[in-house]
Amino acid sequence: MYLSTVSRPEVTEVLGRRKWRVSGNVVALGAVSLITDISSEMVTAVLPLYLVVGLSLSPLAYGAIDGLYTGATALLRLVGGYVADRTRRRKTVAGLGYGLAAIAKLGLIAAGNSAAAIGAAITADRAGKGLRTGPRDALITLSTPQDQLGRAFGVHRSMDAMGAFIGPLVAVGVLAWAGSQEFDAVFFVSFLIAAFGVVVLVLFVRDRREDVPPKAVNLRAAAGLLRHKGVGGLLLAASLLGLVVVGDGFVYLLLQKRGDLSMGWFPLLAVGTSLVYLLLATPLGVLADKIGRAKVMLGGYSALALVYLALVSTLEGLPLIILVLVLYGVFYAATDGVLMALAGRILPESLRATGMALVQTGQALAYLGSSVLFGLSWQLWGPNAACVAAAVAVVVAIVVTALIFARVNRSVQS
Questions:
Q1: What is the DSSP code (8-state) at residue 253?
Q2: Which of 35, 64, 66 is nearest to 48 (CA)?
Q3: In a domain, 105, yes or no
Q4: Which of 37, 115, 126, 171 could form a disulfide with 42 if both were Cys (CB 3.0 to 4.6 A apart)?
């Protein structure tokens, strides 16, 4: 009755406005990620400086710890994803992950100057990230229509990037207030902010439970996930691409050296990357929905190849810093959320969190290998040769991944 009294242009306008929105649950999850990323990026911004300059670790040792930061707890992603799907309590599993990561910040304070203890605290922090990421991204997909996943992940990653933008600034402010070497102050403030993120999750995020009985999700179904159309190819492509990403710490250490930047400004390099990421994540997510998610993602990896080449170019100083940070921000904006949007189209709904955790595990394990290999290459042959080799590896990975995605697309459509 109501629709019959409304003209068609008005109905179209209302539907058009709805199409541009994302659900409140996505916004709430984005708020949690924003707060949590302020906390985590406070630590990430000072950690390379703390380990390489403060503790005098070698490039190889730093590469091992940096890889550990992302890759060593990768299997916990699978545990978190499977438990979330099995119990259908994705919010609870994600909350445990956020809580563990918050407590790990206190572990960094207790670790002191011990590299082993720092590694243990980092492992706990990444364990928290491993537990929460799959359930969180599954909640985003379950709160969003299929044709708007790129937009939803773009909005979420934009809010996440806002936190990454603010975090290093907070770290710089804390160090300016407490003293340039008072890293414990940064770690404690980081803990307080992370704990607030857990509170926001508990109060504002709603669980989404699809109409799938728990018994439909079991170890046999999870083990057979790779036989589902397109999943094996997606995992292979994601792992291959993860193998050519050397890590922010290496990029920023090289950029600080080539850009002749004082140590006090080092944490702000991450701010530049995050600003570009923040501005482009949503537009590139929308573009991915329109022209194809694989195209946008591979374009992002092309920007990564240019980052590695720029670091060995003749550019120096401010022009080099601006170029690298813009390209690095484009890389993250075009790949992070877009990959999960691509996975959301392929993975079965009943095993969405498990499948996303599987993809992220493949990337994390590959990243562990790439960080160690890059650190070893730097130590043996120097940073320039390591960067050139990384750029060549990215180009090869783009070509191979394009072929894999073409096959995955045919498989899903058949």
A1: H
A2: 66
A3: yes
A4: 171
Is the separation of the CB atoms in 352 and 142 below 8 Å? yes
Could you tell me if 39 and 102 are in contact, meaning their C-beta atoms sit under 8 angstroms apart? yes
11: in domain: no
Tokens, residue 302? 């092309």
Distance between CA atoms of residues 281 and 37, nearest Å: 15
- pLDDT at res. 5: 40
- Choose between 179 and 89: higher pLDDT: 89
**What is the rounded distance in angstroms from the CA atom of residue 151 to the CA atom of residue 137?**
13
CATH number of the domain bearing residue 38: 1.20.1250.20
Q: How far apart are the first and last CA of the chain?
A: 41
* Residue with the two structure tokens 């704990």: 195
Quote the tokens at residue 252: 């920023």
Which of these, 123, 84, 82, 86, lies nearest to 101 by C-alpha position?
Answer: 123
pTM for the model stands at 0.69
Q: What is the pLDDT of residues 380-401, one digit of tens each?
A: 899 899 999 999 999 999 999 9
**Dihedral angle, C-alpha 127, 133, 138, 140, nearest 10 °:** 150
As for how many domains the chain has, the answer is 1
Residue 90 CA neighbour count, 13 Å, CB half: 28
* Residue partners of 21: CB distance under 8 A and separation at least 6: none
Tell me the pLDDT band of 208, cut-offs 50, 70 and 90: confident
Domain for residue 76, yes or no? yes
CA distance 193 to 205: 18
Residue 119 lies in a domain: yes
Domain enclosing residue 164, as ranges = 24-201+219-413
Residue with tokens 């300059």: 53
Alpha-carbon gap, residue 18 to 28, rounded angstroms: 18
